[in-house]
Design brief:
The protein has 440 residues and is an alpha/beta fold. The chain contains 14 helices and 14 strands.
Length: 440
């Protein structure tokens, strides 16, 4: 263990105190830290600082939220200005409703109207409810490895229960809650077609991450998304794109702009709120009418608060100002980090490579390539999950934070400049050497 790690007395003691009062020491299953718990005291740019003052270069970026790094001053100032005039919460419409809604529609031509929510989980749940109301059908087709939040109707097929399983991913989710959910392999259009042939008259919506984020950064094969669009049209189902992860990350207009496929409903989150709790779902006015008329119930005390919409307006304005140059820069830096990661693996004698999509990447240990992987189960079979988790633990010792999920993503922000990337590669190289030595 590197010098200084054992001295994290305040961090470890405080984590024990947190765990005394907060179940599991955290408020999301996704934050489980294993042998090396973190308690963060402050953040800035690409850095996190724990309670003992140790600095970590952060490649989690709030699970993809912080496209501009931690605490960008322009974002905070936009929020503070709004708080000074409107306060943090109103529970009434205000001008930011229109300003943010109009900006979203400019980025996403498939969206004419939106509703705001507090999280991607809530927004997906509302979109599924809306699709069921519009079609009068109970069913849902989703894909293996796709995470659409932790709500009961979609709590199946993430991968935790194993390939092909239709068992709920959480205790307490009744089997009947997912009884009308069919799960197909991602990129398998024939499986989706067969499912629709068998159950199409029961299926309200095809729900898909257009790029499978939590499933290992799998991109759609040519014709896959187009095929889903055709299947939805043929069977009278809605096509829902979950762009919580990809919206504003892979392109200003999300994956639907990248691949030229228009969904019926879109779910957005993460980057949209700039670090504040904000998500949205939307589509054409005609499809949003049941929500507008109150026939489909959607609500929440904190939905659309001025605080979070001020942040969203600032983020969307920044994206519009910086334009394609921002994405080109992020692509270039992410590619540079991926090359550095692979060079570090080779130098240490480790077999591995790096998958990359836009400003997201995933190191894969145990195989030299994975381009042939089409689905979540393909990639899950290739990744050495035990060694990957160990790699992430060693990285934390060296001041690099990346998520321990074996098919999770590393995210870059605009705050990860060339100097930080070089420092990261140097630290990663040391971690790779230690990982190789442990394997002996």
């Amino acid at each position: 263990m590197p010098e200084g790690v054992a001295g994290r007395t305040r961090t470890e003691a405080l984590f024990q105190e947190i765990a005394r009062w907060v179940a599991g020491g955290e408020t999301s299953y996704a934050r489980q830290m294993g042998v090396f718990p973190l308690v963060i005291a402050r953040s800035e740019g690409p850095f996190l600082y724990d309670e003992d003052g140790r600095r970590y270069i952060d490649y989690c970026c709030g699970y993809g939220v912080n496209l501009f790094g931690h605490n960008p001053p322009w974002l905070l100032e936009a929020v503070f200005q709004t708080i000074r005039t409107m306060g943090p919460h109103l529970a009434f419409p205000h001008r930011l409703y229109a300003e943010v809604g109009e900006r979203i529609a400019r980025f996403f031509p498939s969206i004419e109207q939106v509703r705001f929510a507090n999280s991607g989980t809530e927004a997906v749940m509302a979109a599924v409810r809306l699709a069921r109301a519009i079609t009068g059908r109970p069913g849902l087709l989703k894909f293996e490895g796709a995470y659409h939040g932790w709500a009961d109707p979609v709590c199946v097929g993430w991968g935790g229960s194993g390939p092909g399983s239709s068992a709920p991913e959480s205790a307490g989710v009744l089997p009947e809650a997912v009884a009308h959910v069919w799960v197909c392999p991602f990129n398998d259009l024939e499986a989706a077609r067969a499912c629709m042939e068998a159950h199409g008259r029961e299926i309200a919506a095809i729900l898909v991450e257009p790029i499978l984020g939590s499933g290992g950064l799998l991109t759609p094969l040519p014709g896959f998304l187009e095929g889903l669009r055709a299947l939805a049209d043929r069977w009278g189902a809605l096509l829902i794109f979950d762009e919580v992860l990809t919206g504003f990350r892979v392109a200003p207009g999300g994956a639907q702009a990248l691949y030229g496929v228009r969904p019926d409903l879109t779910v957005l989150g993460k980057i949209l709120g700039g670090g504040f709790a904000l998500a949205a779902f939307g589509g054409p006015r005609e499809l949003m009418k049941p929500v507008a008329e109150g026939r489909v119930v959607h609500g929440g005390t904190y939905t659309g608060s001025p605080t979070v919409l001020a942040a969203a307006r600032a983020v969307l304005d920044r994206l519009e100002e910086e334009g394609p140059a921002l994405y080109a820069m992020l692509e270039q830096r992410t590619e540079a980090l991926a090359r550095g990661l692979e060079a570090a693996m080779r130098a240490a004698g480790l077999i591995g490579h790096v998958r990359r999509v836009a400003s997201m990447l995933l190191p894969v240990l145990g195989v030299a390539r994975s381009e042939e992987a089409r689905s979540w189960r393909d990639l899950a079979a290739l990744q050495d999950a035990v060694r990957y988790r160990r790699f992430c633990e060693i990285l934390v010792w060296h001041g690099i934070f990346a998520h321990r999920f074996p098919l999770g993503r590393w995210f870059l922000s605009t705050a990860h400049d060339e100097r930080i990337l070089q420092e990261s590669v140097d630290r990663i190289a040391q971690a790779c050497k230690e990982l190789a030595q442990e394997a002996g």
